[in-house]
Design brief:
This protein is an alpha/beta fold. 36% of the residues lie in helices and 23% in strands. It has a domain of 169 residues: P-loop containing nucleotide triphosphate hydrolases (Rossmann fold), CATH 3.40.50. It contains 9 helices and 11 strands. The strands form 3 sheets. A 6-stranded mixed β-sheet has the order 7-8-9-3-10-11, sandwiched between helices. It has a 3-stranded antiparallel β-sheet with strand order 2-1-4, with no helix packed on it. The chain has a two-stranded antiparallel ribbon with strand order 5-6. The protein binds adenosine-5'-triphosphate. Pfam families: ABC_tran. InterPro entries: AAA+_ATPase, ABC_transporter-like_ATP-bd, ABC_transporter-like_CS, P-loop_NTPase.
Length: 243
Protein backbone atom coordinates (compact mmCIF):
# COMPACT_ATOMS: atom_id res chain seq x y z
CA UNK A 1 0.00 0.00 0.00
CA UNK A 2 1.62 3.26 -1.05
CA UNK A 3 0.60 6.79 -0.03
CA UNK A 4 -2.97 5.75 0.61
CA UNK A 5 -5.36 8.44 1.84
CA UNK A 6 -9.04 8.38 2.64
CA UNK A 7 -11.62 10.97 3.63
CA UNK A 8 -15.08 10.50 5.04
CA UNK A 9 -17.73 11.75 2.63
CA UNK A 10 -20.85 13.70 3.48
CA UNK A 11 -24.35 12.96 2.20
CA UNK A 12 -23.59 14.77 -1.07
CA UNK A 13 -20.58 12.51 -1.56
CA UNK A 14 -18.11 15.35 -0.90
CA UNK A 15 -15.02 14.69 1.29
CA UNK A 16 -15.86 16.10 4.74
CA UNK A 17 -13.00 14.92 6.98
CA UNK A 18 -9.59 13.37 6.31
CA UNK A 19 -9.51 9.97 8.00
CA UNK A 20 -5.90 9.05 7.20
CA UNK A 21 -3.19 10.18 4.80
CA UNK A 22 -0.15 8.81 3.03
CA UNK A 23 -0.18 5.35 4.53
CA UNK A 24 2.64 3.26 3.11
CA UNK A 25 3.13 -0.33 4.26
CA UNK A 26 4.47 -3.48 2.70
CA UNK A 27 4.14 -7.15 3.55
CA UNK A 28 7.01 -9.10 2.02
CA UNK A 29 6.63 -12.42 3.84
CA UNK A 30 3.93 -14.20 5.84
CA UNK A 31 3.11 -11.95 8.78
CA UNK A 32 0.87 -11.83 11.83
CA UNK A 33 -0.15 -8.22 12.29
CA UNK A 34 -2.37 -6.72 14.98
CA UNK A 35 -4.05 -3.49 13.88
CA UNK A 36 -4.99 -1.36 16.87
CA UNK A 37 -6.12 2.17 17.60
CA UNK A 38 -8.90 4.16 19.20
CA UNK A 39 -12.44 3.95 17.81
CA UNK A 40 -13.06 5.91 14.67
CA UNK A 41 -9.42 6.07 13.54
CA UNK A 42 -10.23 4.15 10.37
CA UNK A 43 -9.09 0.58 11.07
CA UNK A 44 -12.13 -1.06 9.43
CA UNK A 45 -11.90 1.38 6.55
CA UNK A 46 -8.27 0.43 6.00
CA UNK A 47 -9.12 -3.28 5.99
CA UNK A 48 -11.96 -2.65 3.54
CA UNK A 49 -9.58 -0.78 1.24
CA UNK A 50 -7.21 -3.71 1.36
CA UNK A 51 -10.04 -6.02 0.29
CA UNK A 52 -11.07 -3.60 -2.50
CA UNK A 53 -14.47 -3.19 -0.85
CA UNK A 54 -13.81 0.55 -0.80
CA UNK A 55 -11.44 2.74 -2.82
CA UNK A 56 -8.75 5.12 -1.59
CA UNK A 57 -8.93 8.80 -2.55
CA UNK A 58 -5.22 8.75 -3.36
CA UNK A 59 -2.44 6.22 -3.45
CA UNK A 60 -2.30 2.66 -4.67
CA UNK A 61 -2.48 -0.93 -3.55
CA UNK A 62 -0.50 -3.73 -5.10
CA UNK A 63 -0.62 -7.48 -4.69
CA UNK A 64 2.36 -9.41 -6.05
CA UNK A 65 3.40 -6.20 -7.78
CA UNK A 66 0.10 -5.89 -9.64
CA UNK A 67 -1.92 -2.71 -9.06
CA UNK A 68 -5.45 -3.15 -7.75
CA UNK A 69 -6.89 -1.18 -10.65
CA UNK A 70 -5.41 -3.71 -13.09
CA UNK A 71 -6.83 -6.66 -11.17
CA UNK A 72 -10.26 -8.28 -11.15
CA UNK A 73 -11.58 -7.42 -7.65
CA UNK A 74 -13.09 -10.90 -7.31
CA UNK A 75 -9.71 -12.49 -8.00
CA UNK A 76 -8.06 -10.06 -5.53
CA UNK A 77 -10.58 -10.93 -2.81
CA UNK A 78 -9.81 -14.62 -3.20
CA UNK A 79 -6.23 -13.76 -2.22
CA UNK A 80 -6.92 -11.02 0.35
CA UNK A 81 -10.21 -11.81 2.03
CA UNK A 82 -12.11 -9.66 4.53
CA UNK A 83 -14.02 -11.04 7.52
CA UNK A 84 -16.47 -8.50 8.92
CA UNK A 85 -17.20 -7.86 12.58
CA UNK A 86 -20.94 -8.21 11.97
CA UNK A 87 -21.30 -11.62 10.32
CA UNK A 88 -23.91 -11.61 7.58
CA UNK A 89 -25.50 -14.98 6.94
CA UNK A 90 -26.95 -15.62 3.52
CA UNK A 91 -30.40 -17.23 3.24
CA UNK A 92 -30.35 -20.99 3.68
CA UNK A 93 -28.62 -23.51 5.89
CA UNK A 94 -25.18 -23.46 7.48
CA UNK A 95 -23.96 -25.76 4.73
CA UNK A 96 -25.49 -23.52 2.05
CA UNK A 97 -23.51 -20.65 3.55
CA UNK A 98 -20.28 -22.63 3.54
CA UNK A 99 -20.88 -23.71 -0.07
CA UNK A 100 -21.71 -20.17 -1.24
CA UNK A 101 -18.13 -19.10 -1.60
CA UNK A 102 -17.26 -21.98 -3.92
CA UNK A 103 -20.43 -21.40 -5.95
CA UNK A 104 -19.64 -17.66 -6.29
CA UNK A 105 -16.00 -18.18 -7.18
CA UNK A 106 -16.47 -21.30 -9.29
CA UNK A 107 -14.19 -23.41 -7.09
CA UNK A 108 -14.70 -26.90 -5.67
CA UNK A 109 -16.36 -27.14 -2.26
CA UNK A 110 -13.89 -28.72 0.15
CA UNK A 111 -16.20 -30.58 2.51
CA UNK A 112 -13.36 -32.18 4.42
CA UNK A 113 -11.76 -28.80 5.15
CA UNK A 114 -15.17 -27.37 6.11
CA UNK A 115 -15.74 -30.21 8.61
CA UNK A 116 -12.23 -29.83 10.04
CA UNK A 117 -12.62 -26.07 10.51
CA UNK A 118 -16.06 -26.50 12.10
CA UNK A 119 -14.54 -28.97 14.55
CA UNK A 120 -11.51 -26.78 15.30
CA UNK A 121 -13.80 -23.89 16.15
CA UNK A 122 -16.05 -26.06 18.32
CA UNK A 123 -19.01 -25.95 15.95
CA UNK A 124 -19.23 -29.63 15.08
CA UNK A 125 -22.32 -29.99 17.32
CA UNK A 126 -24.29 -27.89 14.81
CA UNK A 127 -26.53 -29.61 12.26
CA UNK A 128 -25.26 -28.39 8.85
CA UNK A 129 -28.91 -28.28 7.76
CA UNK A 130 -29.84 -25.75 10.45
CA UNK A 131 -30.96 -22.37 9.13
CA UNK A 132 -27.98 -20.03 9.37
CA UNK A 133 -30.25 -17.16 10.43
CA UNK A 134 -31.17 -19.17 13.56
CA UNK A 135 -27.55 -19.39 14.74
CA UNK A 136 -26.29 -17.28 17.63
CA UNK A 137 -24.11 -14.21 17.05
CA UNK A 138 -20.98 -16.12 18.10
CA UNK A 139 -21.85 -19.09 15.87
CA UNK A 140 -22.45 -16.77 12.91
CA UNK A 141 -19.12 -15.04 13.50
CA UNK A 142 -17.24 -18.36 13.38
CA UNK A 143 -19.24 -19.66 10.39
CA UNK A 144 -18.39 -16.44 8.58
CA UNK A 145 -14.67 -16.96 9.28
CA UNK A 146 -14.85 -20.57 8.06
CA UNK A 147 -16.75 -19.48 4.94
CA UNK A 148 -13.88 -17.13 4.14
CA UNK A 149 -11.15 -19.65 5.00
CA UNK A 150 -12.70 -22.10 2.53
CA UNK A 151 -11.53 -19.69 -0.18
CA UNK A 152 -8.03 -20.58 0.96
CA UNK A 153 -6.81 -16.97 0.72
CA UNK A 154 -3.21 -15.97 1.40
CA UNK A 155 -4.13 -12.88 3.40
CA UNK A 156 -6.94 -12.61 5.92
CA UNK A 157 -8.27 -9.17 6.86
CA UNK A 158 -9.93 -9.76 10.21
CA UNK A 159 -12.21 -7.12 11.72
CA UNK A 160 -12.75 -7.78 15.43
CA UNK A 161 -13.73 -11.35 14.63
CA UNK A 162 -13.85 -12.54 18.23
CA UNK A 163 -15.89 -9.59 19.53
CA UNK A 164 -18.99 -11.70 20.25
CA UNK A 165 -17.22 -14.84 21.42
CA UNK A 166 -16.68 -16.29 24.89
CA UNK A 167 -13.07 -16.66 26.04
CA UNK A 168 -12.72 -20.34 25.06
CA UNK A 169 -14.21 -19.85 21.60
CA UNK A 170 -11.99 -16.80 21.03
CA UNK A 171 -8.93 -18.87 22.00
CA UNK A 172 -9.92 -21.55 19.49
CA UNK A 173 -10.10 -18.90 16.77
CA UNK A 174 -6.67 -17.59 17.79
CA UNK A 175 -5.20 -21.12 17.72
CA UNK A 176 -6.74 -21.84 14.33
CA UNK A 177 -5.35 -18.67 12.78
CA UNK A 178 -1.89 -18.77 14.35
CA UNK A 179 -1.69 -22.43 13.24
CA UNK A 180 -2.83 -21.46 9.74
CA UNK A 181 -0.06 -18.84 9.62
CA UNK A 182 2.70 -21.19 10.80
CA UNK A 183 1.59 -24.27 8.83
CA UNK A 184 0.33 -22.73 5.61
CA UNK A 185 2.24 -19.47 5.52
CA UNK A 186 -0.81 -17.23 5.46
CA UNK A 187 -0.72 -13.61 6.62
CA UNK A 188 -3.33 -11.80 8.60
CA UNK A 189 -4.07 -8.27 9.65
CA UNK A 190 -6.28 -8.53 12.70
CA UNK A 191 -8.14 -5.54 14.15
CA UNK A 192 -8.61 -5.93 17.87
CA UNK A 193 -9.22 -3.70 20.90
CA UNK A 194 -7.95 -6.43 23.20
CA UNK A 195 -4.25 -5.78 23.74
CA UNK A 196 -3.67 -9.13 25.42
CA UNK A 197 -5.13 -10.80 22.36
CA UNK A 198 -2.98 -8.55 20.14
CA UNK A 199 0.11 -9.72 22.00
CA UNK A 200 -0.87 -13.40 21.63
CA UNK A 201 -1.63 -13.27 17.93
CA UNK A 202 0.92 -10.87 16.44
CA UNK A 203 4.58 -10.42 15.62
CA UNK A 204 4.05 -6.88 14.41
CA UNK A 205 1.71 -4.10 15.49
CA UNK A 206 0.19 -1.41 13.32
CA UNK A 207 -1.20 1.49 15.32
CA UNK A 208 -3.63 3.89 13.67
CA UNK A 209 -3.59 7.30 15.26
CA UNK A 210 -3.56 10.94 14.29
CA UNK A 211 -4.41 10.10 10.68
CA UNK A 212 -1.39 7.85 10.18
CA UNK A 213 -0.24 4.26 10.58
CA UNK A 214 2.74 3.47 12.81
CA UNK A 215 4.47 0.11 12.64
CA UNK A 216 6.17 -1.59 15.60
CA UNK A 217 7.82 -4.99 16.10
CA UNK A 218 5.63 -6.94 18.55
CA UNK A 219 8.42 -7.60 21.05
CA UNK A 220 9.35 -3.93 21.51
CA UNK A 221 5.72 -2.74 21.46
CA UNK A 222 4.66 -5.17 24.17
CA UNK A 223 7.69 -4.56 26.35
CA UNK A 224 5.63 -1.60 27.66
CA UNK A 225 2.96 -2.66 30.21
CA UNK A 226 -0.36 -3.27 28.50
CA UNK A 227 -2.31 -0.84 30.71
CA UNK A 228 0.01 1.99 29.60
CA UNK A 229 -0.34 0.97 25.97
CA UNK A 230 -4.11 0.86 26.39
CA UNK A 231 -4.15 4.39 27.80
CA UNK A 232 -2.08 5.66 24.91
CA UNK A 233 -3.44 3.71 21.96
CA UNK A 234 -6.83 2.25 22.74
CA UNK A 235 -8.46 4.70 25.11
CA UNK A 236 -6.51 7.93 24.60
CA UNK A 237 -7.53 10.76 26.89
CA UNK A 238 -9.39 13.57 25.14
CA UNK A 239 -6.94 15.61 23.08
CA UNK A 240 -3.96 13.35 23.75
CA UNK A 241 -3.95 11.19 20.64
CA UNK A 242 -0.37 10.27 19.81
CA UNK A 243 0.58 11.85 16.46
N1 LIG B 1 -19.52 4.73 4.66
C1 LIG B 1 -19.23 5.69 5.54
N2 LIG B 1 -19.81 6.91 5.43
C2 LIG B 1 -19.52 7.91 6.30
N3 LIG B 1 -18.65 7.76 7.33
C3 LIG B 1 -18.04 6.58 7.47
C4 LIG B 1 -18.29 5.49 6.60
N4 LIG B 1 -17.54 4.44 6.99
C5 LIG B 1 -16.84 4.85 8.08
N5 LIG B 1 -17.15 6.14 8.34
C6 LIG B 1 -16.60 6.94 9.44
O1 LIG B 1 -15.19 6.85 9.37
C7 LIG B 1 -14.64 6.81 10.66
C8 LIG B 1 -13.76 5.58 10.79
O2 LIG B 1 -14.59 4.44 10.82
P1 LIG B 1 -13.96 2.99 10.99
O3 LIG B 1 -15.08 2.03 11.18
O4 LIG B 1 -13.02 2.72 9.87
O5 LIG B 1 -13.12 3.18 12.33
P2 LIG B 1 -12.49 2.09 13.31
O6 LIG B 1 -11.14 2.58 13.69
O7 LIG B 1 -12.56 0.73 12.71
O8 LIG B 1 -13.48 2.20 14.56
P3 LIG B 1 -13.95 1.10 15.66
O9 LIG B 1 -12.71 0.74 16.43
O10 LIG B 1 -14.94 1.86 16.48
O11 LIG B 1 -14.54 -0.07 14.92
C9 LIG B 1 -15.79 6.87 11.65
O12 LIG B 1 -15.94 8.21 12.08
C10 LIG B 1 -16.98 6.42 10.82
O13 LIG B 1 -18.16 7.02 11.29
Amino acid sequence: MRNVSKSIRDQEGQPSKRLFSNITVEITRPERIALIGASGQGKSTLLRLMALLDAPDDGELRLDGKASRETDPRQWRMEAAYVAQQAVMLPGSIEDNLRTVSVLHGTLYNQELAARLMEQLGLDYLDPGKQASDCSGGEKQRISLIRTMLLQPRILLLDEITASLDVNSARRVEELLTGWHSEEGGSYIWVTHDLEQAQRISDKVWVMSGGGLHEYPGESFFSVPIDMLAKQYIQPAEGSLPQ
